[in-house]
Amino acid sequence: MFSINETIVALATPPGEGAIGVIRLSGKDAITIADKIFKGKKLANQATHTLHFGKIVDAEQQNRIVDEVVASLYKGPKSYTGEDIVEISCHGSDYVLQQVIGLCLREGAQMAKPGEFTQRAFLNGKMDLTQAEAVADLIASQSSAAHQAAMHNLRGGFSHELKMMRDQLINFSALIELELDFSQEDVEFADRSQLYALLNDAIEKVAALIQSFHLGNAIKNGIKVAIIGKPNAGKSTLLNALLNEERAIVSDIAGTTRDTIEETLNINGVVFRLIDTAGIREHTSDAIESIGVERSKKAMQEADVVVYLFDVTENSLTDIEEQIMKFESNNIHYILAGNKVDTLGLDITKEKFALLQQMLFISAKDKENIHQLKQTLYDRVVAGELKQEGTIITNARHLAALKDVLFSLNDIRNGMDNSLPGDLIALDIRKCLFHLGTITGEVQVDRDILGAIFGKFCIGK
Ligand code: GDP
């Protein structure tokens, strides 16, 4: 594991050419090392949180000037890592940056491992684990919703919620133990209904957090949408209409290969990923319908929400009702969109499908009501769930720990239901506090887990 005695160095900005590149040094010798290569004011004598112009020179090569730079000085513990930090802003040439890093290494710094700066911040108590994880999420955020969720956690929103729950449990535990102290006298000090109320409240909160993961994960990774419908329903026309209107960002989502580049829509700051758009395009003129059907099935299984598109002229009310039954019996979250309303006319279409609630009437060709379709996607998938106040879980590690918390909360409740002795209940409470503590890192977290969390960071963070 990391040795906190070492002073570490890394490029903090992305590699490649840029206007500036920032090299970060952190550790007990950060200022001494910087002073050996920085010619300007002696940094050790300067006040913390100050900027200094100077030159980086190579003493072993007759003080050859490597670059003109600005050094930012942060003396611990008031710094990101809690240690002394010097950040050297150089001109952003790979050559210059490598030279400066090389000089720092020569003067005794060690190359930082991925996430090591943030890991030190955690180890030095500058932030808890959820905040450290939020740093990674913030850097990776691609939409305003993902950004907002990461910011909430970074600013300690989730930690605060966990702390409240912890306090509540400690309070609960105190009441139970009070009862223990007087057990000989057979008195119930802790008002049972009050205990149940505390417990039920905690169970409700944890369950809501667990529930929020579905949306949180979707926000973080994009909400998967499948456009499904018979051949000629107008799927590819709709796809184009959706993409044109939003001037979609075509991005390669991390972890996928180039040939599975997805098309994405940003609706009110949330990323929606349109899945199997290649399938939609390929199979419009494809006679082998079965392949298309297989692909649709797969897309449907993967999707968070399905847009079922149908031609209002070609389908009867019964056709659609049958389709709805299929969706419902398979628990598929769907949105109904009747297409080609222009051919039938809005009034007649509405009359024909009057029995279908929540159906959208669109014309993909004329781009009619495309905006409404997008708003519906947002409202059904995001707004409906976002209504719950507070934190949204976006992290699988937190989810696993919360499930353990919920499990032990239920154990406590069962214990009370069965009038277990107070000391046994107190044991369950301790278990529950332990699981809560693993989320923020208050209790000792496994080294492997720390490694997994910080290993995902890039070097320099
Ligand atoms: P897909 O097989 O579901 O992808 O369907 P396409 O997008 O290829 O559309 C099939 C045909 O329907 C094409 O000739 C489109 O121009 C036509 N079409 C699509 N949307 C509309 C619409 O809103 N109104 C009308 N009148 N025709 C449409």
Q: Describe it for me?
A:
The chain is α/β, with parallel strands linked by helices and 461 residues long. It folds into three domains: 8-128, Probable tRNA modification gtpase trme, domain 1 (Gyrase A, domain 2), CATH 3.30.1360; 133-212 and 392-441, Up-down Bundle (Four Helix Bundle (Hemerythrin (Met), subunit A)); 219-381, P-loop containing nucleotide triphosphate hydrolases (Rossmann fold), CATH 3.40.50.300. It has 17 helices and 14 strands. The protein has a seven-stranded mixed β-sheet with strand order 3-4-5-6-2-1-7. Helix 6 packs antiparallel against helix 7. The radius of gyration is 29 Å and the shape is flat. Bound molecules: guanosine-5'-diphosphate.
N/C terminus separation: 17 Å
Oligomer: single chain
- Which compounds are bound in this model? guanosine-5'-diphosphate
CATH superfamily of the largest domain: P-loop containing nucleotide triphosphate hydrolases
Count all strands and give the number.
14
CATH class of the largest domain: Alpha Beta
Q: What is the helical fraction, as a range of percent?
A: 40-55%
What structural class is derived from the secondary structure elements?
A: alpha/beta
User: What's the story with the biggest beta sheet?
Assistant: 7 strands, mixed
Tell me the number of structural domains: 3
Biggest sheet, spatial arrangement of strands:
3-4-5-6-2-1-7
| Basic shape | flat
Q: Give the DSSP E fraction (strand runs of 2 or more residues).
A: 15-25%
User: Residue-averaged pLDDT, rounded?
Assistant: 84
CATH topology of the largest domain: the name is: Rossmann fold
Any guess at the CATH architecture of the largest domain? 3-Layer(aba) Sandwich
